Amino acid sequence: MSRFLAAIQFTALLLLVAPQIVAPQAARADWDDQPGFGFTGDYLVTSPEAPCGTGTPPRGHFPPEIPTTAPFQIVTLTVKQDPNRLCYVFGKIAEAPTIRVRQGEDMFIKLRNEITDPAALDKLVPVGHLDDPNPEIKAEAGTYPVEPAMHHKATGRTNLHVHGLAVSPNVPQDETLKTCVDPATGPSPTSPAPTSPALCGRREFVYHYRIAPTMPAGLYWYHPHVHGEVQAQMLMGLSGALIVEGPADDARRAAGIEDRVFVIRQSQDLDAPPPAAATADAAPAKPEAAKPDAPKPEAAKPHRKRPKLEGEQIDTADEMACSDNAGTDELTLNGAQVLDGDAKDTDLAHLEIAAGQKQLWRVLNAATDSFLDLQLVDETGKAVPMAIEARDGVPLINDAGNLLAAESTAAAQLVPPAGRLEFYVDAPAVGRKLYLVSHKVDTGCAGDKVPERKLAYLTAIEPTQPLPPAKLPAPITTAALPGPFNGILARKTDKVRTLAFAEYPHPGSDDLNDFYIFERKPGAVVRPYDMGGEPAITVNAGTTEEWVVENWTNELHAFHIHQVHFRVLEVNGKPEKDPELLDVMTVPAARTSSGDVTKAKGPVMPGRIRIKLYFPPELAGDIPFHCHLVDHEDSGMMAVLRVLPPQTAQQRKAELTPADLLKNAPICRAADGTAPSSKPE
C-alpha cells in the first residue's frame, strides 16, 4: 500500500471519529472554561438569554487572546446566535479570540454549531441567480456561452477556513468545500419546524492543523467558508485573527516591543440590507437622519446604468456598468463602530505608548468587501513613516528566503478585503497625537463608496522609570530561511494561463448580480461555481505557473487563492520592481480607450495582474480560488484548482485522489432554492 493511499484511509477514519475525539489528559488541555487573556467587561459574556452577550466593546478594546503556552490545547469555538447576529464563543466570552500558535506546532480547533434560526441569515445572503440562461458574450478570444447562477438559500451550516496558512486542503485540515457542521435542530423563533436537514452529519468537528516549522511567522485569520453563506455569516460577526509566532517574535519581545491586533470588520453591506438590529460587531445603528448618504430602503440595492441589450448578444463593452446609487458600507474596529469622515477623538480608539518606544501594529481587513488605504498622519494631516514588517502574514523576504529590513514608508498602503499589513509605529512626542487613517478608495464606478475614515490615535506617556529608546530588532539571521514559497521567481514557468473576472445581469435586466471567474481559452464556458462540478484547473504538484488575472468589470476585485502565496509580477502590464509575496491581490477595474467609462465608448481594456505560483507536493488536493469580495464569491465568482499528488499516471488511475475521499459526501453549500437541499453529488 502506498503512503498516499494509507494517508487517505487514515483521513477517512479520522473523518468518522473526529466528533468523538477525546484529548489525552496528560497531553492536551481543553480550554473551554478559561476566560482568555485581554478580556474586560461582562457585556461579552454569553448566557442563555443573550448568547452573544448584552452589548458591544468600547473603542480601544482588543479581543481576548489564546497564547501559545499550551501547544497541545484544543481551542473550542462555538457558533451561537442572537436574533440578528452570530458570534464565536470561546469559554464564556462571546467574541472571536486572537489565536496564537508557534511555528512547528499542531493546532486543534473544535468547531461547534449552535445556530438556531438559519432563516435569519437569509436577509444577508446575496441574490445571485438568473431566471434563464444568459445570451452568449463576445470576448477577445471568441464567444463564450454563459450559464446562470443559482439562487442561494441560507442553511445555517458553517465551517472554518484558516486564511493564508500553507496547510493541507484535505480533511482534517483546511478542507472547506465539503467539511461542515449542521446548525442546531428543532423549532426556531421564526419557524416551528426543524431549521435545516442535517446534511453535514455532525454538529461539531475537530480541525487538526499541522503548522510547519517553515510556515512564515505573521498575521493570518479564520472565517467561515460555506459557499453561498460566507457574506451573511461574516457580516453577522464570524471572523477572528490568527498569529503564527517564531524567533522574530521572541526577539521583538526581548526588545520591549509589544504588538497590537486590529481587526476591521464590516457590519453592513448596502447590496444586502441587514436586519434592523446591530450585528455582533457594530454599535447601535445611527438614525437615518444622521446618515445623509444612506439610500432609502427601496433603493438600497444599487442600480446599474447599462446600454440596452442589442440582439441576442452582450458585448464586452456592456461590462462597463456604473452604479447609480452605490452604498457606503459600515465598519467596526475590534467590535466598536468606525465613523465616516473627520471623527472626533472621543469617537476613536485611543492607544497609549511609553515615550521613545515602538509598537508592532497588525491590521487585518476582515471586511466582506470594503478596501482600506492605510496611512499614519500627525495632527496636521502630514504623513508619518511606518516601518512595514510583513504583508499577508509573510515577513519581507527576497526570493531566496533572506529576511529584509523593515520597509520605511510614509505612503498610504492599499489593503484589499482579506489582506493584512504589519508595521512598526514610533511613539509621538509627549503631548502630540498620531492617527491611523484609511483614505477614500475609488473602487470603480460600479463599486461601493469607500470614504475617508479615522480608525485610531496614539499618544505617548512618560514612563514611570527611564527606558532606553526602542530599536527595531535585528533580523534573526542573515542566512536564507526555509519556506514553502522560496524560489518562485527562480523557478521555470511550466504554463501560463489567463483567468477572467466577469459580471452579467439577468436577461432583460440592468442589475449585475451574477459573478464569474473562468479560464479564458477556446471552448470555455462562463459558469458560476458549482460545488458538485469538476475542478476548473488541474495541475501536477511541484509545478510552477503564471496566471494573468483579468478584470472585465468596472469595479475592483480581490483575487485570493487558498493554501499558497504568489509573487506579483505585473499590474496593468507594468512590471513590479520588487514582486511581493501575497495571498490576496487587488485586480484593477477595466477601462475604455476613450476614458469615458460611463458611456463605454471604445474597446474595453481589462484590468490585469500577472502572478507566479508554485504548488508544493505537501499541498496537493482541491484548492479554491475566488474574489474575496465575498458577496461576489457567494454569487459564483469562485472556482477550484486540483493539485494532483506527485505520482505516475498509472498510480493516479489506481489510487484515490483527495476528492475521491468525499465523493459521495453531501455538498456543503447554501441550498439551491429550485432543487431539494439534500441532493447528493
Helicity level: under 10%
Rg calculated over all Cα atoms: 24 Å
Put simply, the count of helices is 6
* Total DSSP E strands: 44
- CATH architecture field of the largest domain: Sandwich
Name the average pLDDT. Answer: 78
Structural class: mainly beta
CATH class of the largest domain: Mainly Beta
- Count of all domains: 3
Biggest beta sheet attributes? 8 strands, mixed
Overall geometry comes to globular
CATH homologous superfamily annotation of the largest domain: Cupredoxins -  blue copper proteins
Q: Between the first and last Cα atoms, what is the distance in angstroms?
A: 28 Å
Overview of this structure, please?
The chain has 681 residues and is mainly beta. It has 3 domains: 3-245, Cupredoxins -  blue copper proteins (Immunoglobulin-like); 265-282 and 304-461, Immunoglobulin-like (Sandwich); 495-672, Cupredoxins -  blue copper proteins (Immunoglobulin-like), CATH 2.60.40.420. 6% of the residues lie in helices and 33% in strands. It is built from 6 helices and 44 strands. The strands form 10 sheets. Strands 13, 17, 18, 20, 23, 24, 25 and 27 form an 8-stranded mixed beta sheet that branches. Strand 6 (136-139) and strand 7 (142-144) form a beta hairpin. The longest helix is centred in the N-terminal third of the chain and has 15 residues, at 3-17. It is globular.
